[in-house]
Specification:
Helix 5 crosses helix 7. The chain has eleven helices and 13 strands. It folds into two domains: about 100 residues, 2-Layer Sandwich (Nucleotidyltransferase, domain 5), CATH 3.30.420.40; about 190 residues, Hexokinase, domain 1, CATH 3.40.367.20. It is α/β, with parallel strands linked by helices and about 325 residues long. It starts with 12 loop residues before the first strand and ends in a 5-residue tail after the last helix.
């Protein structure tokens, strides 16, 4: 995957964004070279509405003086179900109104796709330097791929090989019911049921989920919580300074393995499973030495089906932006305008 260091010389550009519950990432795509530049991150918490962040990015584009005032078109990869022209985020107060954004962009067409659909589009461009493999053999080129990722929430999609280009199927798979395997996981489920009327996998496999697991384990052993943010928990686990944090991340990885295996079965993902999101790369070494792969394959009579399926942990940055750009090229023929 190539990311340009400097903006190109053409005034023809496309706007792409990857908008999650915590951060909004923007970039310029050169229409002729397909390279990304001016990659910029904004904190969701620092901007009252999405259009404020977009306005700030457009200002930086215009200050660059190498691009025209408005893009030719835009693709926003957003964290939530995309079935209407107005989208309300699952994990933030932001609202995306495609018509209003098109007006802000000088009537440029605006395409909304799910953020993990963008990851799905990006998988076609990934090379060996963009990920590490967590067991399994070689993916089959003519079989579906499953994509999942943990961050502010838990996203998932399927990538289906078709004649001309892969078809990405958006899903809300992260919200399926959590299925505990061990007695400890059952105990954690019972604790979480006191807080929520329903417990999905996202309640555990997300930033807030790490804290929820940590708090539940502390309650089970009658211990005070030393940490209150996900990064505090996994950093303590990596450093080996807190046994409870270490147990939390081991359980997190085990549950992640179960969920990934469930997706592989549901989607028939013999092409492979890709893990994206912000948490996986940070806990890479814990993940590699955890129960993740065993739990991925531990599906009784279907163990042999899963044993050869490769799991790839994506380590490349800005994959959502790359996927949004790829979507524009595939769906709109952007490079040929």
């Amino acid at each position: 995957m190539r990311v340009a260091e400097q903006a190109g010389t053409s005034s023809d550009w496309l706007l792409v964004a990857d908008v999650g519950g915590t951060n909004a990432r923007f970039a310029v795509v050169d229409k002729h070279t397909n390279e990304l530049s001016l990659i910029t991150y904004y904190s969701v918490a620092d901007h009252r509405v999405f259009t404020d962040a977009l306005k700030q990015f457009l200002h930086s584009v215009r200050a660059n003086q190498q691009w025209s005032r408005y893009p030719l078109r835009a693709c926003l990869a957003v964290a939530g179900p995309v079935d209407k022209a107005v989208l309300k985020f699952t994990n933030s107060s932001w609202v995306i109104d495609a018509a209003a954004i098109a007006t802000q962009l000088g009537a440029a067409p605006v395409h909304l796709i799910n953020d993990f659909a963008a990851i799905g589009y990006a998988t076609a461009q990934l090379t060996a330097k963009d990920y590490i493999q967590l067991g399994g053999g070689c993916g089959l080129a003519d079989k579906p791929i499953a994509v999942l990722g943990d961050g502010t929430g838990l996203g998932a999609c399927a990538v289906i090989p078709t004649a001309h280009r892969p078809t990405v199927v958006e899903t809300e798979g992260g919200h399926v019911d959590f299925a505990p395997i061990t007695s400890q996981e059952i105990a954690i489920l019972n604790i979480l049921l006191q807080r929520y009327s329903r417990v999905s996998y996202e309640r555990l496999l997300s930033g807030s989920g790490i804290v929820a697991i940590y708090q539940a384990l502390a309650e089970l052993v009658n211990r005070d919580c030393l940490h209150h943010r996900p990064e505090e928990v996994y950093e303590a686990a990596i450093a080996g300074t807190d046994t409870l944090a270490m147990r939390t991340m081991q359980l997190f990885c085990a549950v992640l393995g179960s969920f990934a295996g469930n997706l592989a079965l549901t989607m028939g993902a013999r092409g492979g499973v890709f893990i994206a999101g912000g948490i996986g790369p940070k806990i890479r070494h814990i993940l590699e030495h955890s129960e993740f792969r065993n739990r991925f394959e531990s599906k009784g009579r279907l163990r042999d089906f899963l044993a050869d399926i490769p799991v790839y942990l994506i380590t490349a940055s800005d994959v959502g932006l790359q996927g949004a750009a790829h979507y524009l090229r595939c769906s709109c023929g952007a490079s040929n305008d």
